[in-house]
Amino acid sequence: MGAPQARQGRGDASADPEPRGGTDHGSSPQRAQGSSGRTLGDQSPEAGTQSATRISAPSGGGDAEQPAKPKPSGPTGPGNRMALRNWRISTRLVSLLTLPVVAATTLGALRIEGSLNNIEQLDQMKLLTKMTQQATQLASALQEERDKSAGPLAGKGNDKDDRVVSTREDTNRAITAFREATHQIDPGDQSLAGVQSTLVNIDRQLGKINEVRDTAYDNSEYYSLTVQNYNELINSLLLLSQDMAQATSNRAMINNTRALATFSSAKEYASIQRALISAALADPKGADFSANDRRFARTAVDKENEALGRFKQIRQGNSEDLLDPLDSRPDIKAATMYADRAVRDPEGLKAEKRTDLDWYDQDSIKIEEMGKIEQTLLSEMQQKARELRDSAQQDAILNGALILLVLGVSLVGAFVVARSMVRSLRRLQDTAQEVSQKRLPELVKQLSESDPQDVDTSVESVGVHSRDEIGKVAAAFDDVHREAVRLAAEQALLRGNVNAMFTNLSRRSQGLIQRQLSLISELESREADPDQLSSLFKLDHLATRMRRNGENLLVLAGEEPGRRWTRPVPLVDVLRAAASEVEQYERIELSSVPATEVAGRVVNDLVHLLAELLENATSFSSPQTKVKVTGHALPDGRVLVEIHDTGIGLSPEDLAAINERLASPPTVDVSVSRRMGLFVVGRLSLRHGIRIQLRPSDSGGTTALVMLPVDVAQGGRKPAPQAAGGKSGQGAPAVGGGQGNGSAGLLGSAPSRRQVPGSGP
User: Fold this and answer.
1) What gap in Å lies between CA 758 and CA 271, rounded to an integer?
2) Which pLDDT belongs to residue 583?
3) Angle at 426 between CA 425 and CA 428, to 5 degrees
């Protein structure tokens, strides 16, 4: 059976330190349990040390002491029931919010809202005043174009005349300026719906200005048609001043806008007279009106007088002084009299020898004076709008200051009320954070690292002793804190007792198994029958596996091995010793193991770790397949050991869960007994900074990657050069043989199962 050959490399069990190892079959199926995956580089040696420290718990017995109540640093009692700090939270909140809310609602709604609305209206009025000024200028430009071009177009039909071209250019510039001013109106403002409707009408008529110009004064029997076309556009512009009344509720502003609109209408009627008389005087057939034009001109004279009368009634005040130049200047009076006689007397135009240019110049004095009056009205309206806005702004500031004063007084009172709550809440919050982030974790750490009876488990009170809800919450928090400390002490004591039991049982079992192995070794040395020797070897192997399971208890208890190697051991010997811990050791095949040595302090734990992985690999793969173990020396001095099996493999979720469990072993509990192999491997890897990861194998099955750090793989020395391909470490028989050789690369029939060979032969 090959057993005698396997016995040839064995040393005395009592002379050399014994390797750790073992995973029973009951725990092997749990290798797929875990949480989430992690790569080999995710866990550092320092993190492993911290995790091991977290899981370990001290041993010991005894009951946790009851926490002694310390002297409070704050008030010693709740005080008077009527004290402010003893009010109910609902009462405080109502008293805190009532006065500011009532003050803000009452004064804010009645004063600030009214002032802001007034300011908004006056801002709109200011915008409309500016737009009205642009409209008035455009109306004056259209009047100038209509009146000044009447003579050249009615007389010679010369639309290239300088008077015609220059006035049309001025009008075009005025149209552009007016359109730019109208863009500032918000289309969605419902309060300016009338203004927007007027603007739409004006824009439509401005689009037809070229048609009006093309047919201007081309019908000598109906000059009033051209005048009327211009008049429709001018009247639309003048309506803007009336629509301005929609933007304000101030009576003075409404009166000013009506006065402006009325006087602008009078000025338009005077301009109509100037245009019709100029066209009649320039007529090539002779200076005379057609019946339609005379009637239209006479109507314009009557409406001008009527508009001036209405203006005096609307404006009142100094309207007489404002209109005095129109009544007192002789040249203006002469022009007015000539116009009245010309439209009423059929021979009025022929009574005096005049040209259209003479008449235009004479009547323009009146139109210009009326334009000055119009600008005066505009200026007065703008000044009134500014005064009203300034007044509204001052009212808003005054109201705001009054409200701020009331709110200030309210906030001061609210601050006094809230301060009593905030101080208690802040103290409770700070204490709770300190307990959760500092006190309790430090206490749990002390309980896990030392005897719970030696740790002060007294709880310091929050220090809030009021009778309101905050005081009750603080008292409840103190109770919770005390209970948490008591439970932590009991848990630490329980963990210590369990660890002590694990350690005691494991030490006793180790002693008995060691004696059993010594006896079996003695029987093997005296036995000559190959069949009996083979049975003794099997019995020896079972005892070795029993010892490894017992050592798992020491790992669960967080105990270190009792003995350590003092000298480095070749990696190939460590791998062979780990294989000897496995039931199906004959299926394990070593190849390409680098000639490196493992630090002596890690040998026992590394043998134990590799044995657990090899046990899983052989248990979850077909008995007819090989489990291949290879090693790779990396340039940075680390060594990567790969364990390949050809089993059914694991799902990505299972691999991720196992890798997470290997990187971060959980706290010892009942579930560890069902996943002892994974837990032991994780504990041992974290203890020495060894990184382990499971990955799917290219040929099917699973590959376990074991990364040995430099301080472990090089035995404390500088990295050694990797051995030549096809050669194993020292003392390895037939390691690294090709796949075609059925026996090459195998460990032999019965490798050493009880100790790791030293560096010697």
Assistant:
1) 127
2) 80
3) 65
